[in-house]
UniProtKB/TrEMBL annotation:
This is N5-carboxyaminoimidazole ribonucleotide mutase. Residues 3-154 form the PurE domain. Pathway: Purine metabolism; IMP biosynthesis via de novo pathway; 5-amino-1-(5-phospho-D-ribosyl)imidazole-4-carboxylate from 5-amino-1-(5-phospho-D-ribosyl)imidazole (N5-CAIR route): step 2/2. HAMAP family: PurE_classI (MF_01929). Keywords: Isomerase, Lyase, Purine biosynthesis. SUPFAM superfamilies: N5-CAIR mutase (phosphoribosylaminoimidazole carboxylase, PurE) (SSF52255). Substrate binds at S11, D14, R41. It catalyses: 5-carboxyamino-1-(5-phospho-D-ribosyl)imidazole + H(+) = 5-amino-1-(5-phospho-D-ribosyl)imidazole-4-carboxylate. Belongs to the AIR carboxylase family. Class I subfamily. Its EC number is 5.4.99.18. InterPro entries: PurE_ClassI (IPR033747), PurE_dom (IPR000031), PurE_prokaryotes (IPR024694). Catalyzes the conversion of N5-carboxyaminoimidazole ribonucleotide (N5-CAIR) to 4-carboxy-5-aminoimidazole ribonucleotide (CAIR). Coiled coil: none annotated.
Length: 163
């Protein structure tokens, strides 16, 4: 099946965070592609990836990186596709470095920045799915069902002392 979302990350060490994006897209049946690409370590591959992403049929790109996280911004500089950036939690600065590297884009090149860590990765997968759902009514229905399920699980068990 044609992958509609590309999930790229700066290192294999980012996968334990970025797999949360895959988790929600699996649940919502959104086809995606996963690959390590680094602005710093594989700069030519990054430029090639970003400049051919739209021709490959991707509609949204999720980029996760930690530390000096230039990856999402550099991808955004070479593609018109929406880029969602996930700051991976770093050891030295707990992800504040990743967050600020991704969020402080200069005017004119946009990256949508999510929260630090797995919650941000999960929401990046969800937001990518919501973007695709603007032109896919079946996916929209699956997202509504996911949200209903989430709401119901809270309303059905509101006592904080019980699992
Ligand atoms: N921030 C970037 C980029 C980039 O922005 O291109 N490439 C790798 N990295 C990050 O370096 C961290 C440490 O990587 P290693 O664990 O491989 O040493 C990872 O979080 C990765 O995203």
């Amino acid at each position: 099946m044609q992958a509609l979302v590309a999930v790229v990350m700066g290192s294999k060490s980012d996968w334990p965070t970025m797999e949360a994006a895959a988790e929600i897209m699996d649940k919502l049946q959104v086809p995606y592609h996963v690959e390590v690409v680094s602005a710093h370590r594989t700069p030519d591959k990054l430029m090639d990836f970003a400049s051919t992403a739209a021709d490959k049929g991707y509609k949204v790109i999720i980029g996760g990186a930690g530390g000096a996280a230039h990856l999402p911004g550099m991808i955004a500089s070479k593609t018109r596709l929406p880029v969602l950036g996930v700051p991976v939690q770093s050891k030295a600065l707990s992800g504040m470095d990743s967050l600020l590297s991704i969020v402080q884009m200069p005017k004119g090149i946009a990256v949508g920045t999510l929260a630090i860590g797995t919650a941000g990765a999960f929401n990046a997968g969800l937001l990518a799915s919501q973007i695709l759902a603007t032109s896919d009514t079946q996916l929209a229905a699956r997202i509504d069902a996911f949200r209903d399920e989430q709401t119901r699980s809270i309303l059905d068990n509101p006592d904080p002392r019980e699992d």
